[in-house]
Amino acid sequence: MHPLAAASDSSGGFQGPSIDEFFPSVLLFAGTPFEITRITLARFFATILVILLFWLGTRSMKLVPGRFQSVIEMGLDFVRGNVADDILGKKDGRRFLPLLTTVFFMVLFMNLTGIVPGFNIAGTSVIGVPLILAIVAYVTFIYAGLKKHPGTFLRNSLFPPGVPWFLYVIVFPIELVSTFVLRPITLTLRLLMNMVVGHLLLVLFFTATSFFFFESHNLFALFGIGTLAFGFVFTLFEIFVAILQAYVFSLLTAVYVQLALNDEH
User: Fold this and answer.
1) Cα(93)–Cα(73) distance, rounded to whole angstroms?
2) Cβ within 8 Å of residue 155, ≥6 positions away
3) pLDDT 10s digits, 108-150
4) Alpha-carbon distance 123 to 250, whole Å?
5) Which residues contact 106 (CB under 8 A, 6 or more apart)?
6) pTM for the whole structure
7) Distance, CA of 135 to chain centre
8) Are 255 and 138 within 8 A, CB to CB?
9) Which of 23, 146, 157, 164 is most buried, by CB atoms within 10 Å?
């Protein structure tokens, strides 16, 4: 169902959004592993847009940047200063900056497709992309720990030093689940559920607006003004959430890497 379409059931009453919003009709290659839906196109669009913007913004760098180059540099400086260097320090931040920058802008642009007319759904509102990004963060965490502390990383992660030996019966399963199981799961669900809820709210307000304006009668149509206003406000809020979730995802990725590099291992 398109978010701006009228929402009514067969009896003419209002029908709110449902989980079917996240299973749109197949547009191309139906019945194959390469099915393309509106969500797939949103992901393609976000990916191409990120690549195009950064290619155009960095292909001819100048000492005195123009407006477009300045915007690109501001975005890169934000990730470097507020995520990479702030959490990992200058040396390690430089090593992992390409990954953190990719994660931040990939999440950001895919989140923002939720307010792009024609797509009206975030590329991160279905579990595939959040899960892949969480796996990338998880693998990076394991890689960083094993490379920095090859002989002690796993042991000290599961059996923290300084804990009385008889408590390891309790500590071991807690550390195993919290460190190596829950981290990628919570990273995935945090991003996914924020985008799901945001999309459903926008669909609710705009379908209600359509219903009040075009299907209700008399003074009930005035309620459409209120739902339209709420839809506009929540669209702005969705932009804020899109930026915040991109920041949180990249920040947590950096935090996990920092924990793996910690000298206590």
Assistant:
1) 17
2) none
3) 999 999 999 989 999 999 999 999 999 999 999 999 999 999 9
4) 17
5) 46, 47, 50, 129, 133
6) 0.89
7) 13
8) no
9) 157
